[in-house]
Design a protein that fits this description.
By secondary structure, the chain is mainly alpha-helical. It has helices at 8-21, 31-39, 45-57, 60-70, 76-99, 106-124, 127-132, 138-158, 167-196, 201-204, 206-231.
């Protein structure tokens, strides 16, 4: 009864609002987490899993990209394929980025992540075929952008002088937490989309929704580039 009282378009707008209200700094770290990362020594599986899950659930840029990825995916098999490619991508760069100290400017990497949201919204609107006359490989694009999303996660971890003792175990735990957080958020997004698809308004407002997705990406890119040029 509760879901029937909510219009589909309002439900999706609520999803976007929740994504943004979680935090305006997707890769920011709250004070308690910062202190833990600075003083922790040795293997701490559960705390790092919690931090990873929390980071993904409050990471609106990651979530908006995933919304774009699964927006027009109706089969569970397709959702699993695309999410798996994204997971492989960001897991690789998260681990290797931290272990091999591959640093990237946080503003620039976050700007690229914002661009990934623009890309997916544009792709969902059929912009490549209409304007450029070709369609990029969507699976390859999702995995490539997953690599950049992983660098975003690695860049934030690298800001702290995390002890080397238990580093690999803690990174694995953090990544597992990220996947658990991603899975939890994905379930909510899929439920919302599945509910909305029952209504004619889904196709009627799909263009506006993906345009909103692109606009969100533009704002993120602008915000991060402003931070980059003002700090430089």
């Amino acid at each position: 009864m509760l879901f029937k009282s909510i219009s589909p378009i309002r439900l999706l707008l609520l999803l976007f609002a929740c994504s943004f209200s979680a935090t305006l700094f997707a890769h920011g770290v709250d004070e308690s987490t910062k202190q833990f990362l600075l003083v922790n020594e040795g293997v701490s599986i559960i705390p790092y899993m919690y931090i990873g899950a929390k980071h993904m659930v409050t990471g609106y840029d990651h979530l908006l990209f995933l919304v774009g990825v699964i927006f027009f995916l109706y089969r569970a098999k397709d959702v699993m394929v695309y999410v798996t490619l994204f997971t492989i991508g960001h897991s690789l760069t998260l681990m290797f980025g931290v272990l091999y100290n591959m640093s990237v400017n946080p503003y620039l990497i976050d700007a690229i992540i914002g661009f990934s949201i623009i890309y997916k919204g544009f792709d969902n609107l059929g912009g490549f075929k209409r304007i450029f006359g070709f369609q990029p490989n969507t699976k390859a694009a999702v995995m490539i952008f997953g690599l950049f999303h992983g660098f975003g996660l690695a860049t934030k971890i690298q800001e702290f002088d995390i002890p080397q003792a238990g580093l690999i175990e803690n990174l694995i735990a953090f990544n597992v937490g990220v996947e658990l957080g991603q899975f939890s958020a994905l379930i909510l997004v899929l439920l919302a989309l599945s509910f909305w698809r029952k209504y004619p308004s889904f196709l009627r407002f799909s263009t506006a929704t993906n345009a909103l997705l692109m606009s969100s990406g533009v704002m993120l890119v602008g915000f991060q580039l402003t931070g980059f040029f003002t700090t430089v």
